[in-house]
User: Which sequence fits this backbone?
């Protein structure tokens, strides 16, 4: 499989006034197209930092990070924003959606930023919302949707830009177990049917069980990397 | 396009807060529009009524006349009349000209005597230039155009001071060209009242033909030519032309005849803009505060927008647009309210006499104000509002610009 994320010797150190915290400690790993991978570990293990680095939201202290063959640590802030827009889909723990826009407008928004044609945007937004089971809630604002529904809109939004991969940082953290399972089922189906690459972090063991590759972090180091 | 739409929707996410600042802007602009229309109407009304009653747009005198109103400082009507008509023909073919004698003297009744200027007029041309004849109530006689012999038209204020009525006999005494005193008996043929007490107390009107023979002046001599033009703008063009045509005479326009009024006129325009500027300056602090709150409480969302690929330029534009929309919307609502209140009063006028009685008239100001709305003024207000919006937007938008997606989302 084609490697879309190549990480070599990646280090991220946060400098506090009192001390240095090594959040990511010489991590090397590759992620290939079509993977459904989770990064697990106790809080403070560096999961979020690693995801932020992969997503180009943060810059590494040292090491190299290639996404789709491109060294993203060399990009300027502006280039990075454009890169994120076109290559990476994001699902955050919360505050994913723009409250004044409807579900459909939220999904459409990223494509509008990309400058796609109106008909294409409209068609894809509808398809994606149907795919996450919200075909009947397209014109609802986020405040009228449950937490689980909001996260499904966020998944649809993340896919809208046709990214190389989707990063999801604890997407189920604020959900009850049923909604969490439902969200993961949808992500899994999109992964299998559409071949979308997912990388997500979690510390919920039931969610972990759905992943096909589990990377475990501890103190910023990869302590295990198993494919199932 | 989507950013325009998003900005517009964002304004309405906190309806109460946006409503409060919108109302503040609307009220400020309503007051500003009304005040400017009112002030312009007041001053222009006063200027125009003074021009119509008293000064005309341009007056021409013998160069020596104005120094001490010397009866000997005259000029011959036939020498200048055709030239003046030629001078105004190009820019103001409808201009009217009146010639007059101006004689300073004492007007006496059995009860009192006061100093006045008697204007010896040709009544047919005088009524085309000044509107004093229109200020004579129906029961108070006419402006020299009946068969009353030796008629004099005085104001009601002069009538009160002399304690005379219509048809009373009064005596006008003045010095003729030889320095001899001449006393002429007149009969009150009309009593006028303008909105300008100062003018009323100083001016009386008699026929040129009645008074001329007592002056000792040569046939056809006059002291003053008054030219009435269509408007002030025309006057600004014609007055300098006449000045060039008559280098040896005194040619004054209305603003030179009444520099105080002319000063008020410019000052009002300037003050209007200053007052509106102050309004907007104060309002802009409210706008900045509102937008700053809007940015700070949306920190996480703005971080998310940056994370999913909205550029800083786009986020900056969004906040700028929100602020400008808010300001412009409030401004337009305020201006429309202002227009709605001003429009009906433009015809009927606003009567100020209820709270100041005659005091405005005593100082030469009309007590009924006809507000004026002009497009140029409204355009200036809108430009000022947009400018205020853009300036107030800068700080909040800069705040949004400084956010880093990751740090913003962590908050």
Assistant:
């Amino acid at each position: 499989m084609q490697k879309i994320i190549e990480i070599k010797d990646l280090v991220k150190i946060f400098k506090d006034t009192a001390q240095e915290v090594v959040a990511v400690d010489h991590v090397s790993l590759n992620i290939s197209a079509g993977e459904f991978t989770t990064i697990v570990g106790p809080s403070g293990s560096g999961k979020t930092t690693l995801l932020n680095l992969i997503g180009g939201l943060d810059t590494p202290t040292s090491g190299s990070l290639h996404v789709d063959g491109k060294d993203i640590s060399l990009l300027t802030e502006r280039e990075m924003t454009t890169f994120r827009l076109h290559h990476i889909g994001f699902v955050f723990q919360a505050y994913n959606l723009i409250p004044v826009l409807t579900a459909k407008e939220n999904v459409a928004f990223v494509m509008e930023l990309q400058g796609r044609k109106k008909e294409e945007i409209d068609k894809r937004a509808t398809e994606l919302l149907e795919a996450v089971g919200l075909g009947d809630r397209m014109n609802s604002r986020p405040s009228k949707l449950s937490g689980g529904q909001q996260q499904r809109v966020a998944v649809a939004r993340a896919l809208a830009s046709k990214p190389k991969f989707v990063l999801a940082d604890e997407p189920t953290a604020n959900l009850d177990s049923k909604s969490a399972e439902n969200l993961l089922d949808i992500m899994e189906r999109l992964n299998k049917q559409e071949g979308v690459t997912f990388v997500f972090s979690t510390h919920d063991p039931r969610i972990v069980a759905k992943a096909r590759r589990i990377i475990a972090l501890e103190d910023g180091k990869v302590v295990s990397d198993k494919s199932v | 396009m989507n950013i325009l739409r998003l900005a517009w929707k964002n304004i309405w996410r906190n309806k109460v807060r946006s409503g409060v600042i919108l109302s503040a802007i609307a009220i400020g602009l309503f007051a500003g529009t009304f005040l400017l229309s009112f002030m312009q109407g007041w001053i222009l009304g006063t200027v125009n009524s003074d021009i119509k009653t008293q000064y005309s747009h341009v007056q021409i005198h013998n160069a020596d006349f104005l120094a001490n109103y010397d009866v000997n400082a005259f000029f011959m009507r036939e020498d200048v009349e055709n030239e003046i008509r030629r001078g105004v023909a190009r820019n103001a073919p409808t201009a009217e000209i009146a010639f007059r004698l101006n004689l300073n003297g004492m007007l006496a009744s059995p009860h009192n005597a006061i100093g006045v200027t008697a204007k010896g007029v040709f009544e047919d041309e005088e009524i085309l230039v000044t509107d004093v004849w229109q200020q004579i109530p129906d029961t108070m006689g006419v402006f020299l155009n009946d068969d009353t012999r030796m008629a004099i038209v005085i104001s009601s204020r002069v009538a009160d001071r002399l304690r005379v009525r219509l048809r009373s006999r009064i005596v006008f005494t003045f010095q003729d060209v030889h320095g001899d005193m001449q006393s002429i008996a007149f009969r009150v043929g009309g009593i006028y009242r303008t909105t300008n007490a100062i003018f009323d107390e100083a001016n009386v009107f008699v026929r040129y033909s009645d008074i001329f023979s007592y002056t000792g002046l040569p046939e056809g001599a006059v002291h003053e030519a008054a030219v009435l033009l269509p408007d002030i703008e025309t006057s600004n063009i014609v007055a300098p032309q006449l000045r060039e045509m008559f280098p040896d005479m005194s040619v004054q326009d209305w603003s030179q005849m009444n520099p105080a009024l002319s000063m008020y006129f410019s000052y009002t325009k300037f003050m209007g803009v200053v007052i509106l500027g102050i309004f907007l300056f104060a309002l802009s602090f409210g706008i900045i505060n509102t937008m700053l709150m809007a940015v700070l409480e949306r920190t996480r969302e703005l971080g998310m927008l940056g994370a999913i690929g909205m550029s800083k330029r786009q986020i900056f534009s969004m906040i700028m647009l929100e602020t400008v929309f808010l300001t412009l919307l409030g401004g337009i609502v305020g201006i429309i309210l202002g227009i709605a209140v001003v429009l009906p009063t433009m015809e009927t006028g606003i009567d100020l006499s209820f709270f100041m009685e005659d005091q405005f008239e005593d100082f030469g100001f009309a007590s009924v104000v006809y507000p004026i709305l002009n497009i140029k003024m409204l355009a200036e207000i809108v430009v000022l509002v947009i400018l205020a919006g853009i300036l107030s937007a800068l700080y909040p938008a800069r705040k949004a610009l400084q956010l880093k997606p990751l740090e913003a989302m962590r908050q």
Observations:
- Chain B touches chain A through 22 residues (CB under 8 Å).
- Chain B has a mean pLDDT of 89.
- Residues 2-50+262-410 of chain B form one domain.
- The CA atoms of residues 156 and 191 of chain B lie 6 Å apart.
